[in-house]
Amino acid sequence: MIKNIISIMLDILFVPIGFIIYISSLLIPKNKRLWLFGSWFGQKYSDNSRYFFEYVNSFHPEIDAIWLTRDEKSYQEILKQGNKVERIDSLRAFILVLKAGCLIICADSSDVLGRFSRYIKVRLIQLWHGTGLKKLKETGRMNGKLAKLIAKIIPFYLPGYKMVVATSKLSALTIADALKTPVERVVITGYPRNDTLLIRSDNIRKSGRAFCFDKSLSSSLLIAYLPTCRVGKMDLFVKYKFNYRKLQNTLRAIDANMIIKPHFYNTLTIDIPLESENRVFIFNDSDIPDIYKILPSVDILITDYSSVLFDYLLLDRPIIFAPFDLEEYMEKTTDFYFEYDDVTPGYKAKDWDDIIKYLIILANGGDIHRKERFLISKLFNKYNDGNNSERVFKSIAEMLGVIHEN
């Protein structure tokens, strides 16, 4: 909280400069074909912004697409791709933001903007990073109150979204509420990252496995446990009867391997012994910065309250739900937009003994939730044709008035 207050106090001190920047940005012509991209506060190269950025670079050379980042690893990766990239807070980035037709993000404006850039009048396109199961809980209440107070004095301090992307009519309502954005500004296109899920290819499956391992896995099944973000320390293992030996033997029996990866805000309090035939692998965010590189290879998903479940439904593969701490999570973290059981089509596990039981059932053909998965997927995914990026592009181009300018 102290860090947030200091940041806002600095913004107050910069108000005179901010007004100069704001007025200047109104006078500088915008380049409708200059699109700037970023994700996760400039720290990652991932999510919807990344997939849309790569799509634009591949299929729309008429657009000058540039990624802005604070992360050196991301900077070097984009350079190797042959795409354009600049460092946030550099003079070059500041000038680009002044001239940009739009900024394309997936978390908030700091995905692309430096401190002074927030004062620039620019179109902000929010691709977001998940369908709304959980409500967004206000964090840093003092930060929110101070920001709103400053916004009354500086009307351009809190940038509004010109356009927000959603996956269905239902998700459009939740995201409009979560982001305090008029629902009229929400367009239903599907998420760009989900286009990868819909490429039905053996090469995609193999590349996902190769992304995690030095050599292709020989097992028939790949299982991923992807829990959602937790605040503070979390124990999702010992407290809930995790038994490594029992899990290892089960995975060997059903010829499967399991990936365990926490949300990038969290670390796991568990150690896995090294064995000659290890079947359980723990990865952190530096190992797998983008789970959508491996998701097409996953045969069974285990999750709790993560919005990844709605994307994974497009694959029509089994999901085991592990809401071990449901009541505690809702009490300490947030409420849900929907009744949990109504939108989670799969077996519900209360502990790791249940997970092992359901893995054995699914490995032996006991997938009884296909119809339920289909119905829930239709509610949250209007499209399953792999053309989400194309729809996002057309929506932005039409908004900017460049769709017919060739």
Your description of this structure?
This protein has 406 residues and is an alpha/beta fold. 37% of the residues lie in helices and 14% in strands. Strands 3-2-1-4-5-6-7 form a seven-stranded parallel beta sheet, sandwiched between helices. Strands 10-9-8-11-12-13 form a six-stranded parallel beta sheet. α1 (2-13) packs parallel to α6 and α3 packs across α14 (388-400). The longest helix has 13 residues, at 15-27. It is globular and about 65 Å long. The model is unreliable at 138-142 (pLDDT under 50).
Summary tags:
seven-stranded parallel β-sheet; 406 residues; alpha/beta; single chain; 37% helix; 14 helices
Q: Order of strands across the biggest sheet? A: 3-2-1-4-5-6-7
- What general outline do the C-alpha atoms trace? globular
Rg estimate, integer Å: 22 Å
The end-to-end span amounts to 49 Å
The ordered H/E elements are: HHEHEHEHEEHEHEHEHEEEHEHEHHH
Q: Give unreliable regions as ranges.
A: 138-142
Which range best describes the helical content: under 10%, 10-25%, 25-40%, 40-55%, 55-70% or over 70%? 25-40%
Query: Structural class of the helices, strands and pairings?
Result: alpha/beta
Would you tell me the overall average pLDDT? 86
- Largest sheet data: 7 strands, parallel
Beta strand %: 5-15%
Number of helices: 14
Structure summary, number of beta strands: 13
